[in-house]
Write a structure and sequence with these properties.
Order of helices and strands: HHHHHEHEHHHEHHEEEEHEH
Distance between the termini: 73 Å
Strand order of the largest sheet: 1-7-6-5-2-3-4-8
Number of strands: 8
Number of domains: 2
Structural class: alpha+beta
Helix content: 40-55%
Radius of gyration: 22 Å
């Protein structure tokens, strides 16, 4: 095995363990080798055997193709297979927490996001909205068998779920971010609530109004954050420093939601896939091209955080109007 591939494999493993264990101990445990034998491999004095590489790649979920750099026009992504997916809110949040913690631990980490419809992190301030979004994805798009004949109803958010969501928000809030929204922002989510109401898919039709009321609270909270350019949790006060939140409004159509992280140690990318799933890559060429597109998108968008009050107010007024119109329609139906 070439030294370059061996170094890439070791770097990939370091990225996976994120300081939770020493590299030597981690490799020794997986390969059942002595620490001396492991350190010889880490120093490049001894090559990994093909069987050791396979064992390490399998244990840590590392793509061997990504280590090989087979072709410049091929990109390797990691993702959560739907055949093995746990559609519970707990598991979904745990996977997000793993990702944001990994980004936060990078030196000088920042985020650049494009959001087509759903502000995933902001939804965590109102977990019932995220729970509905995940249910809608599983039932109406993926036809998950256990949801086939089910209706959506209120369930109390468990303490574990609440704490996981809170931890994600705390980590996300500490990472400076630039976020680009388009004019279809949240309108798809409003249509999904209307669709479930019209299709009698709520156990209690009034629950549609509860979700719309929470959407209004979400908008109020986002507006408060964007006005001062700082992220903070719902029900708390903004920090004196840090938590930078630059929000841009793009008047064209954003075709997907992209989450790009940058750091002194490198960059990476998460792309929305099949509505709520994510593709992840650190491919240098692909990430570099994506960063160029994001930079151009920022140049063609209007900054609405801290400045541009007129455009910011118009953006939120139109969204609030969409929510009110949907509420009026549902309330009229409920009185019949």
């Amino acid at each position: 095995m070439s030294t370059d591939i061996q170094e890439k494999l070791i770097d990939a493993i370091k990225d996976k363990i994120q300081g939770e264990d020493s590299l030597g101990k981690a490799l020794a445990d997986v390969l059942n080798l002595s620490l001396d034998a492991v350190y010889r491999r880490c120093r490049g004095e001894t090559a990994f055997t093909i069987f050791e590489v396979r064992k390490l790649c399998s244990h840590y979920g590392i793509s061997f193709d990504a280590l090989m750099d087979v072709r410049s026009d091929h990109v390797v992504f990691s993702y959560n297979s739907l055949s093995e997916y746990d559609f519970s809110l707990d598991r979904y949040l745990e996977s997000i927490l793993e990702g944001v913690k990994a980004v936060k631990n990078l030196p000088g980490a920042t985020l650049t996001l494009t959001v087509k419809d759903t502000p995933l992190f902001q939804f965590l301030n109102f977990p019932h909205l995220l729970r509905f979004k995940l249910y809608f994805w599983a039932k109406s798009f993926l036809n998950v068998e256990e949801y086939k004949n089910a209706q959506f109803g209120y369930e109390k958010i468990s303490e574990k779920t609440f704490q996981t969501g809170k931890e994600i928000l705390q980590v996300y809030n500490m990472i400076p971010s630039k976020e680009i929204y388009d004019f279809d922002f949240l309108r798809g989510f409003i249509r999904q609530i209307q669709y479930y109401f019209d299709a009698y898919l709520f156990k209690d039709p009034n629950y549609a109004l509860k979700l719309l009321n929470e959407m209004q609270e979400l908008l109020n909270h986002m507006k408060a954050q964007i006005s001062i350019g700082k992220k903070f949790m719902y029900g708390t006060h903004p920090p004196a420093s840090g938590n930078e939140y630059e929000v841009y409004l793009n008047q064209t159509i954003i075709t997907d939601s992209t989450y790009c992280f940058h750091s002194e140690a490198g960059s990476g990318l998460y792309l929305t896939h099949n509505m709520m799933n994510f593709l992840h890559t650190k491919d240098l060429n692909y990430v570099g091209e994506s960063e160029q597109i994001l930079h151009k998108l920022l140049e063609n968008s209007s900054l609405i955080s801290k400045v541009n009050e007129k455009e910011r107010n118009a953006f939120f007024y139109k969204l609030e109007r969409s929510i009110q119109l949907c509420k009026q329609k549902i309330e009229a139906e409920l009185t019949i």
